[in-house]
Structures are given as C-alpha cells and as structure tokens.
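My main concern about presentation is that the manuscript never shows what a single data entry looks like. Each protein is reduced to its one-letter sequence and a matching series of backbone shape codes. For the editor and my fellow referees, an illustration may be useful. For illustration, here is how one protein appears when written out as sequence plus structure tokens:
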Amino acid sequence: MRTTAVALLALAGALTLAPSPAGAAEGAEVYRRRCASCHGADGSGGAKKLPPLSSPLVQSRSDADLFTAVARGTADRKMPAFRGKLADAEIAAVVGYLRTLKP
C-alpha cells in the first residue's frame, strides 16, 4: 500500500507539468484504444451519456484525482478500474490527454 501511495504522489507531481506533444500523442492513442468506447471518440460522453470530459465538472478535478479515478474506477462503479490493465505511465498519459480536450 505504501508503495502505491508513493507511486501516486510521484505521478501526481509529474502530472502538474504541461503534457509534452509526445505524451499527449501517447495519451490520445491509449484513450482511443481504452476509453473512447464509453466516453466517445471526442470525449463528449458517448452513447452512455457520460459527462463530457471537457466539462468544468471533469476539468476542475486535480490530475491526481483523475489518475485515481482511472486507476481505481469510480465509487458508483460506472467506470471500471484500469490499474493492472494499463501501466501507471499510460494512465498518466491519458490524464495529460484529457487536459487537451476543449468544450
């Protein structure tokens, strides 16, 4: 558990930096493969009518909160956990990509 907390803190610190073009491209690819089927190709909420990922509701969350939501899933279980399915670096790249989405 302690190792996980340390890894999350390290990633949260890294996420505060603006995503690099390469990181955003990697995040876009991971998003396309693993997230778009539920959230829509453009992050608009898709067929499940989820909140748009460019919305103030989502964009106001910290990078660490978004990382945790992707890694652990959401309490309401609408979003599954991706830890173990995606590497931490891939989750961080997706969070960086989410920051590029505009309403």
